[in-house]
Amino acid sequence: MSEQTQVHHSLSRIGSSDVKGFDSLATLALDLRWSWNHATDHVWRKLDRTLWKLTHNAWVVLQSVSRGTLIRAFADPVFAKSVDDLVQDRFDAAQAPKWFQTTHPQSALTVTAFFSMEYMLSEALPIYSGGLGNVAGDQLKAAGDLGVPIVGVGLLYSEGYFRQVIDQEGAQQALFPYNDPGQLPIAPLRQANGEWLRLEVHLPGYSVWLRTWQVHVARDLGVEFGSAFVHPDRSLYRHRTVILNRLGVIGWGAAARELSLSTMMKTAKTRTDPADIINAAVDALIRHRFELPAIIALRRLAGTAHRRVNAEQWNAVFSWDNPV
């Protein structure tokens, strides 16, 4: 995404946003590479050592620092040059070919969607609780370092995992701080016309609108949400079709169902565990680039396959016992 898109947050409400050099700091603060590449730590430490130590949230530091502190910081030529160098290093790192570009220069893969319920990218973005988040976050970071074109898709929770405190009697108390989007290192994902990208989910009797946010983890993917993503009918079906086309995935339909059922029936002849039968179908769908359906659909198909295989085996045994 463009540099302008990355740093576009609600900057108008920050009183220091017109200070020369603020945009460069915003670019660095909204790039979560600083969560594992600590090259920018000295910048936030200089602006507010105490707040940085307490939060390790560069975006909060930038919003909280006074206008006078910013002006004095950029009056220091060493500090100003350091910020400029960090922005340039970030740009150079984004443009430099990584492992994926050098190993697979002719790959048709432009972007891959990676879905997870949680991501542990930084304590400044508390949308994780345990092992799943750690693994998903590390995979995104590794993909960024390797240049693998991956976009993580998850949920922005209003409350993260609880914070533990011990009261005066030694008992654990659980606190659930509110995740204020304005205090998180995230930015609205906007379309080419500047509108906030929203997705409509149709439910019985009403619709739910999802607002989309973006988190910059490591690398620009060049994904532009332009005219191809703008439709007069903002329905879930429309957006789903566009996303499937973008990813090169065939939507779930008769062909995918037939492939799943035939694979399940073949597997059910030698396996009885429903999980094994479902996993075989999932592998087949992925190999043929079909969209994966809801798990309940796969469970129903697995039951159908199991019943059909049982009927075939029963008929085979009955025919053997009663030759014509």
Protein traits:
324 residues, mainly alpha, two-stranded antiparallel ribbon, 13 helices, 8 strands, 10% strand, elongated
Question: What features would you describe in this structure?
Answer:
The chain is mostly helical. The chain has three domains: 3-96, no CATH class; 108-240, no CATH class; 254-321, no CATH class. It is built from 13 helices and eight strands. It has helices at 3-7, 22-29, 41-47, 49-55, 58-64, 67-75, 77-95, 99-103, 131-146, 236-247, 254-268, 274-287, 295-321, and strands spanning 112-115, 150-153, 163-166, 172-175, 187-188, 198-203, 206-211, 213-214. The strands form four sheets. A two-stranded parallel sheet has the order 1-2. Strand 3 and strand 4 (172-175) form a beta hairpin. Helix 2 (22-29) crosses helix 7 (77-95) and helix 11 packs across helix 13 (295-321). It is elongated, with a radius of gyration of 25 Å. Residues 1-8 and 221-236 have low confidence and may be disordered.
